[in-house]
């Protein structure tokens, strides 16, 4: 049985009376609203765990950008019973094998030794999560592995989604495929929940402008752990500009935000608020949403849990209470494992000389905030086969390694840090992977962890701001007002902020404080001590996001041999295709009833007997009529708001004409859909139902 959870927050908004003569857009009719209405939120969640794929999940939420397969086998040297399962190999898509599309699924072909107990753990889109860098071949067991955690959040969760799954195969030789040779199905579950919001401002009389989240779950186990309680981040996340999302305030807006699972919804931790405007009084309004399960209140369990892999819907109700049964789904896929036993590649083990014992432990090399430069650390490699070094792309600018001569089995390599850590708030780390050349799945990571700067004696550049999360500044495609970025630097420090040469879509704002426009054209600023600069973007008119970088530098000097470099990634979403809102006389809950003899409207000169439908839209739209070809027709109207090819441009209107019913004819209906010309998922539908014709004489 599906569980249904209800989240209700009664916001006591008093709705003024509104008759059919009150038009949401001047000149037309609108829905009838009752007097003294309550605005009610209903928050149902269904489909616990993995459910069949449906269009509810977007392509981005189903994407397998990367898929890593961790293979565990019995520790043959252990005297314990049962023997512990330890990590044997890691297969990484794009490096050790390829994910092969197969209809709506993917196939992964890997090669593992047959005949012994195996456990396979699957982590999708998880390579940036640092806990996975500390795995050690033939030492990390399944208990330690399943306790690995995601990174602590610095901003909102984004696609691609972190997913995980597990498959135990007691006998690989016999269980690697089924009788038909089709491979083994693996279910992946997302490790977060999705939240959608439904609001139709034309009938709720409330416009949501921003979504505010406070004390959200900080991280999540990569695999479910019974009884785990997520720690909460203290303070608010960056606000979400709800008006910039597709279909905002005009129906259901999907994927507004994601949350890691938590049971702490008792009103003292996680909080959600919808901030906006009451259209009746035109006053600002903040609506707190309480995570309550009213169906269980009588049993002493009034609060709900946020479960991973579920979809939750917050609804602004028009008429009393309501609920929507909706599911967040995971696309199924197939992992077809092919046995191709290949032994003799051996293992890899890393160590350091005694001189470095204090800074090397558990495959982790801990270094100071300032770069080591020529003072390299030697890492010894115990391996039977040829190996190579692979440095994380994001760490290549500050981690240097010695080159490995081709074809040789070198027994050691040197590691050097090239740049200082620019942060005084947290250490940073990168990974150098020691990888078997012939069998890339046999690999051992070296984690290079660079300490944070000493705020009292070091140099640093710490970034903050209402829209800044870590080193990322994100905003919508429509945003054109300035966004402030605060730079904290030691007293007496001079620094320069420079944007990428190709970043012609944003400028530094002239209202920056404590800064000098070094070039005189707004391309860079010079600052001293702590200061604030602003970024002013242009609206994005394309279907692609834009990403560029602002580089903030403290030049070398004094005891420092290198520049200190901090980077701010500036990301702008693709243009918002917006929403579509419609209004016309007689419209109620998406339906319009028509008399048998057609429309009797007199709204526009020379169009008597036609019904005007007004449209509010952000981008171009068109009109489609279904099941009404013989009696309901679209009347084209002259004017700049409407073109003769049936496509509206932003706000506009169209006219409909209904033929009279013939004697004895029954009730008939037609659907009129106003749909975005670029994204057909943005639409509004009105059903016109015409009364039956007069009785036959």
UniProtKB/TrEMBL annotation:
This is BACON domain-containing protein. PROSITE patterns: PROKAR_LIPOPROTEIN. It comes from Parabacteroides hominis.
């Amino acid at each position: 049985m599906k569980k249904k959870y209800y989240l209700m927050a009664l916001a006591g908004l008093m709705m003024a009376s509104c008759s059919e003569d009150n038009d949401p857009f001047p000149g037309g009719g609108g829905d009838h609203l009752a007097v003294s209405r309550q605005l009610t939120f209903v928050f149902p969640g269904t489909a616990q765990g993995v459910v069949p794929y449906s269009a509810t999940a977007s392509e981005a939420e189903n994407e397998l950008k990367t898929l890593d397969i961790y293979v565990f086998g019995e520790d043959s040297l252990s005297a314990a019973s049962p023997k512990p399962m330890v990590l044997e190999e890691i297969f990484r898509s794009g490096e050790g094998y390829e994910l092969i599309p197969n209809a709506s699924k993917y196939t992964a072909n890997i090669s593992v030794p047959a005949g012994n107990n195996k456990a396979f753990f699957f982590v999708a889109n998880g390579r940036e999560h640092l806990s996975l860098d500390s795995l050690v071949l033939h030492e990390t067991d399944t208990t330690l592995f399943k306790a690995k955690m995601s990174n602590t959040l610095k901003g909102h969760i984004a696609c691609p989604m972190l997913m995980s799954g597990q498959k135990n195969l007691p006998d690989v030789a016999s269980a690697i495929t089924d009788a038909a040779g089709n491979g083994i199905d693996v279910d992946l579950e997302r490790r977060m929940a999705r939240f959608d919001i439904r609001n139709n401002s034309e009938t709720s009389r409330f416009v949501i402008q921003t979504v505010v989240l406070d004390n959200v779950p900080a991280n999540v186990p990569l695999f479910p752990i019974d009884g785990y309680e997520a720690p909460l981040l203290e303070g608010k996340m960056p606000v979400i500009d709800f008006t910039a999302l597709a279909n905002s305030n005009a129906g259901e807006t999907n994927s507004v935000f994601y949350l890691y699972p938590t049971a702490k919804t008792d009103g003292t931790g996680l909080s959600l608020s919808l901030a906006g405007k009451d259209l009746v009084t035109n006053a600002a309004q903040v609506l707190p949403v309480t995570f309550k399960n009213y169906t269980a209140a009588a049993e002493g369990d009034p609060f709900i849990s946020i479960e991973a892999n579920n979809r939750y819907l917050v609804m602004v109700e028009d008429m009393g209470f309501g609920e929507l049964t909706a599911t967040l789904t995971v696309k199924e896929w197939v992992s077809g494992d092919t046995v191709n036993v290949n032994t003799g590649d051996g293992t890899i083990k890393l160590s350091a000389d005694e001189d470095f014992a204090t800074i090397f432990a558990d495959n982790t090399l801990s270094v100071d905030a300032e770069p080591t430069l020529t003072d390299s650390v030697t890492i010894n490699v115990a391996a039977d086969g040829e190996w190579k070094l692979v440095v994380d792309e994001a760490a290549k600018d500050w981690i240097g390694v010695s080159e490995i001569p081709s074809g040789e089995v070198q027994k050691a390599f040197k590691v050097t840090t090239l740049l200082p850590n620019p942060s005084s708030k947290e250490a940073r780390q990168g990974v150098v992977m020691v990888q078997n050349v012939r069998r890339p799945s046999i690999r051992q990571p070296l984690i290079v962890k660079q300490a944070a700067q000493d705020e009292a004696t070091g140099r640093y550049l710490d970034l903050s701001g209402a829209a800044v999360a870590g080193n990322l500044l994100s905003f919508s495609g429509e945003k054109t007002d300035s966004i402030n970025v605060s730079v904290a630097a030691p007293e007496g420090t001079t620094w320069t902020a420079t944007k990428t040469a190709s970043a012609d879509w944003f400028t530094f704002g002239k209202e920056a404080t404590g800064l000098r426009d070094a070039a005189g054209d707004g391309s860079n600023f010079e600052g001293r001590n702590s200061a604030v600069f602003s970024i002013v973007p242009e609206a994005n008119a394309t279907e692609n996001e834009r990403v560029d970088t602002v580089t903030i530098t403290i030049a070398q000097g004094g005891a420092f041999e290198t520049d200190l470099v901090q980077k701010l990634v500036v990301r702008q979403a693709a243009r918002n295709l917006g929403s579509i809102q419609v209004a016309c006389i007689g419209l109620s809950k998406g339906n319009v009833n028509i008399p048998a003899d057609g429309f009797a409207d007199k709204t526009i000169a020379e169009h008597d007997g036609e019904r005007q439908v007004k449209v509010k839209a952000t981008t171009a739209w068109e009109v489609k009529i279904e099941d009404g070809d013989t009696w309901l027709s679209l009347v084209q109207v002259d004017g700049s708001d409407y073109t003769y090819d049936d496509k509206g441009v932003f706000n506009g209107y169209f006219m409909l004409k209904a033929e009279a019913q013939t004697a004895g004819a029954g009730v008939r209906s037609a659907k009129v859909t106003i749909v975005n010309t670029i994204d057909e998922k943005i639409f509004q539908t009105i059903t016109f139902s015409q009364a039956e014709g007069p009785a036959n004489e």
